[in-house]
Design goal:
By secondary structure, the chain is an alpha/beta fold. It has helices spanning 56-64, 83-86, 104-112, 120-130, 143-155, 173-186, 225-232, 236-243; strands at residues 18-27, 30-40, 45-49, 71-76, 89-92, 161-165, 193-198, 210-215, 218-224. The chain has eight helices and nine strands. Strands 5-6-7-3-8-9 form a six-stranded mixed beta sheet, sandwiched between helices. A three-stranded antiparallel beta sheet has the order 2-1-4, with helices on one face.
């Protein structure tokens, strides 16, 4: 994956998918995002890493247009977040946003109706790969199966930017493996960028082209995953433990 284009931190800004320029987001006295600048190019999988409360979910919501910055600027293909840019973004929140009374089939039909970029063939392939029963009610699915369904909803779109907020949180090892394999198999590196936030690094670090360690809303460490491994002589998991010890 290292052959893909790389993340630039406070450097020269080429044509980019997502740019943060000194962005700050406050909730009362808390600065969830604090003077944050980075540029994310197309064609990479970025691991957004940090413990709970580091600001990861807030960062993703800023990109998705669900929060507005209190300072600085965010652009997506040169434009600030807006209804137009939202159409380019597939966002999977950490919270369970599924309707329990719907079946899997109804959930897919309901969500797909909102997006012109929904790929029905890919959706069916993912349903089969995830082992989901189209007739099953969402309320009767295990947490792992619900997580698989959420990934299907995110990855069935041909969106240029895919935001995955803690997709591995609290699910069984089998479901984690399925989720990670689905992300890898459906990633379109020639026209897509994925940002995946997680504090579970051991299983997911092999996916990442780039990593951004977020601590108290600031960048603690960032760069190409493979280069960091070579320069530091440590795995991404070991660097995570070092940064957040």
């Amino acid at each position: 994956m290292g052959r893909r284009r790389r993340l630039l931190i406070k450097g020269v800004r080429p044509v980019a998918r997502v740019v943060f320029d000194r962005v700050t987001k406050r909730f009362g006295r808390l600065r969830a995002i604090d003077d944050l600048s980075f540029t994310l190019r197309e064609g990479t999988i970025l691991g957004l890493l940090g413990p709970n409360g580091a600001g990861k979910s807030t960062l993703l919501k800023l990109v998705a247009g669900l929060h507005r910055p209190d300072g600085g600027h965010i652009t997506i293909d040169g434009e600030p977040p807006s209804p137009k840019t939202k159409a380019k973004i597939a966002y999977l929140p950490e919270i369970d946003h599924l309707y329990g009374w719907m079946t899997v089939r109804q959930t897919l039909a309901y969500v797909s109706a909102f997006y012109n970029d929904w790929d029905h063939d890919r959706s069916q392939e993912l349903v089969n790969f995830m082992g989901l029963d189209l007739g099953a009610r969402v309320s009767r699915l295990s947490k792992g199966m619900r997580a698989r369904l959420k990934i299907v909803l995110a990855m069935s779109r041909n969106a240029p930017v895919v935001l995955l907020d803690e997709p591995l949180s609290g699910i069984d090892p089998t479901s984690r493996s399925r989720v990670l394999r689905a992300i890898v198999s459906e990633f379109r590196g020639d026209r897509q960028t994925i940002v995946m936030s997680t504090h579970d690094v051991v299983e997911s670090e092999a996916l990442f082209d780039e990593v951004l360690f977020l601590k108290d809303g600031r960048i603690a460490l960032a760069g190409e995953a493979e280069r960091l491994r070579e320069e530091r002589g440590k795995s991404i998991q070991e660097l995570f433990q070092e940064v957040f010890a």
